[in-house]
Amino acid sequence: MGGGRVQLGSLHVQLLGGGVYGTPSSLMVTCERGESAVYLFNCGEGTQRFCTDHRLRIAGRLRRVLLTRLDWTAIGGLPGMLLTTASASTSRIGAMALHGPDGLAGSVQITKKHVFRSSELLL
Helix (H, G, I), strand (E, B), or coil: what is residue 120? Predict the structure, then answer.
């Protein structure tokens, strides 16, 4: 057993939400090791606005959105988040993947015509 240490980076977990009863909340996990990456669990309506208001940088760093269910409290903010990601500088965008229950592809397909530009999205 060597005495050397390995720096693994840091992990930050933030609960995103307005704190008002009935408003959806999301969980943002940021991994800081070299280039930071953001993982978002659920994306309720107002998530993008909350991030903007609180100066949380997601665009260009968002790697995965993990959805626990396909109701409005979990996916209501997804179109806005996808628009923001698509508008980010292409040099900062990596592939963003969506993960969720059956029917996710159909839900995204409905908004695809209005949301997607040149960003890369993996389902």
Answer: coil
Q: Is 86 helix (H, G, I), strand (E, B) or coil?
A: helix
State the residue for tokens 């933030």: 14
Give the pairing of strands 26-32 and 10-16: antiparallel
pLDDT digits (tens, 9 = 90+) for 63-111: 999 999 999 889 999 988 887 777 765 545 457 889 999 999 988 888 7
Can you give 88-116 as a three-state secondary structure string?
Answer: CCHHHCCCEEEECCCCHHHHHHHHHHHHC
Angle at 121 between CA 92 and CA 55, to 5 degrees: 45
H or E, element range at 72: helix 72-75
CA nearest neighbour of 62 among 99, 23, 25: 99
Query: 16: Cβ–Cβ under 8 A, 6 or more apart, which residues?
Result: 25, 26, 27, 28, 47, 50, 51, 56
* pTM summary value: 0.78
